[in-house]
Amino acid sequence: MKQKLISFAISAVIMMVLLPDTFAFSESIKWYSHDEGIASGRSEEKNIYINFHAVWCGPCKYMEKTTFSNPEVISYLNKHFISIKVDIDKETKISNKYGVSSIPDNWFLFKNGDPPGRRKAYIDPNTFMKILKSVQKGAGEKKQD
User: Fold this and answer.
1) Known catalytic residue: 9?
2) What are the domain boundaries of the chain?
3) What is the tens place of the pLDDT at every residue in 35-53?
4) 57 flagged as catalytic
5) Is 2.60.40.420 the CATH classification of the domain at 26-138?
6) Can you give the pTM of this predicted structure?
7) Catalytic residue among 29, 50, 57, 84
8) Which of 50, 60, 77, 100 is catalytic?
9) Can you give 32-83 as a three-state secondary structure string?
10) pLDDT of residue 19
11) Is the peptide bond before 104 cis (omega within 30 degrees of 0)?
């Protein structure tokens, strides 16, 4: 019995080493509250992404299921951005501050807090990646000025 357990453990380790992409899907976006995210963005000098949503919002749920579960999106957001989720029903002051009138509402902020833009409605994973890379590139160009 002990030998079977050891064989199983060794097999599991070998599988994790040989098939890392299989286990990468368990990673998820690290979401922050608004205040914590803004502070972290400043201290870590990272761009910020804010997603305004509600539990009853169909397009928000679809974006969660498709875009926010995409491994490339997850990896890129976690590496280059501080990601913030704001529930418009629970955090009305923050939603009002940003002028949110429809959801999902997606805000992109440079490290210094300047917003290069926002995009309302659902964003598919490919378009979302293009936006993230554009914001990241714009932040780098702005930093060099």
Assistant:
1) no
2) 26-138
3) 999 999 999 999 999 999 9
4) yes
5) no
6) 0.77
7) 57
8) 60
9) ECHHHHHHHHHHHCCEEEEEEECCCCHHHHHHHHHCCCCHHHHHHHHHHEEE
10) 46
11) yes
